[in-house]
Design a protein that fits this description.
By secondary structure, the protein is mostly helical. The protein contains twelve helices and two strands, in the order ααααββαααααααα. The longest helix is centred in the last third of the chain and has 43 residues.
Length: about 290
C-alpha cells in the first residue's frame, strides 16, 4: 500500500508539473507587443537613461577590482626585494593569499575549458533557460513578446541584463529588442522599424554602444563577487602587515609611497561601504528614468 501510495503521489506531482508547463506555454503563445511602441524622442530618452545607469553600475562593480589593483601595485616593488621577503618570513607573514600572489606575479588563473551546452528547446519562441531565469521575477507578459523577436542567445543575454539591472519590464525589453542587430533577430528579413528624428546611422551607432556597455556590465557583474572576496582576503593580510611594527618601519623607510597607498585602502570601511564607494554623497541623488 505504501509503494502504491508513493507511486500515486509521484504521478500527481508529474501531473501538476505538466499542467503548469501547459498553462505556461499557452500564456507565452498569447503574448503580443502593445500597439504603442517607441517614438523617436522616447527612444533617445530611454536609451540615454539606460546607458547612464549601466555606466554607473559598471563603475560601481569595478570598485573592488580597482582597490585590488592598488594593493597589487603597492606590494609588487617591496616583494621584489629579498630583504623584505626575508623579513616577512621571519615575522610569519610570508603566506600571501594565493589570489593576491597571482595578481602580484601577473599570473593568469587556470581556467578549465567548458564543453558547449546543447541547445535547449524553445517554448513558443522563448528559450527555456530564459523562462527558468525569470520564473522568480514578476515579468509582464509583454516582455516575452519582445524577447520572442530575438535569437535564444540574445534572449538569454537580455534576461540576464533585466535581472542584473532590476529592469524586468516591457519598456526595457522593448529597448533591448529595438537595439538588437539584425543578425541576432529571430526573423532577420523583417525590416526594422524606423523612427522619426533618428537617422539610420545614429540607430546603428546606438546599437554598437549599447551592446558594448551591456557586455562590459555583464562581465563586471559576473566577477564582482569574486573581486570582493579577493579584496577581503587581501585586506585581512594587509591588516596583519600593518600591525607588525618591523614591517611598517621597513616600508616607511624604503617604500613610503606604497605604504601610504596600503594605508589608504585600510582606511576604507569594510562591508558594503568598501564596495560602493568611500566618500558619502552630499549632493542629491540623480533620478533615473523609470522604464
Amino acid at each position: 500500500m505504501k509503494a502504491r501510495g508513493k507511486s500515486l503521489g509521484l504521478e500527481a506531482a508529474y501531473q501538476v508539473l505538466e499542467n503548469s508547463r501547459t498553462r505556461h506555454t499557452a500564456l507565452v503563445e498569447r503574448m503580443y507587443e502593445p500597439a504603442r511602441l517607441f517614438t523617436g524622442p522616447w527612444l533617445c530618452k530611454t536609451y540615454t537613461a539606460a546607458c547612464e545607469r549601466t555606466r554607473e553600475l559598471t563603475a560601481e562593480a569595478k570598485i573592488p577590482r580597482q582597490r585590488l589593483e592598488t594593493i597589487v601595485q603597492a606590494m609588487r616593488d617591496p616583494l621584489k626585494q629579498e630583504r623584505f621577503r626575508y623579513l616577512l618570513s621571519a615575522e610569519g607573514l610570508a603566506a600571501v593569499p594565493k589570489t593576491l600572489a597571482q595578481r602580484i606575479n601577473a599570473e593568469q588563473p587556470v581556467q578549465t575549458p567548458s564543453s558547449p551546452a546543447e541547445p535547449k528547446p524553445l517554448i513558443s519562441g522563448i528559450s527555456s533557460e530564459v523562462l527558468d531565469l525569470l520564473q522568480d521575477w514578476y515579468t509582464p507578459p509583454q516582455v516575452f513578446a519582445s524577447l520572442r523577436r530575438m535569437l535564444p542567445e540574445r534572449q538569454l543575454k537580455a534576461a540576464r541584463l533585466m535581472i542584473a539591472l532590476n529592469r524586468a519590464n516591457f519598456h526595457y525589453a522593448q529597448l533591448l529588442s529595438t537595439l538588437t542587430p539584425l543578425s541576432q533577430l529571430a526573423d532577420p528579413w523583417r525590416p526594422k522599424r524606423k523612427f522619426a528624428d533618428v537617422a539610420v546611422e545614429q540607430l546603428a551607432e546606438m546599437e554598437i554602444e549599447f551592446d558594448a556597455l551591456n557586455d562590459e556590465f555583464l562581465h563586471c557583474a559576473s566577477l564582482c563577487g569574486t573581486w570582493a572576496l579577493e579584496l577581503m582576503a587581501a585586506r585581512s593580510y594587509l591588516d596583519r602587515l600593518m600591525e607588525n611594527a618591523r614591517v611598517v618601519r621597513y616600508l616607511a623607510q624604503n617604500f613610503p609611497e606604497q605604504l601610504a597607498k596600503l594605508q589608504t585602502i585600510l582606511d576604507i570601511p569594510m562591508g558594503r561601504e568598501a564596495l560602493v564607494g568611500h566618500t558619502k554623497r552630499t549632493r542629491r541623488r540623480r533620478k533615473h528614468l523609470v522604464f
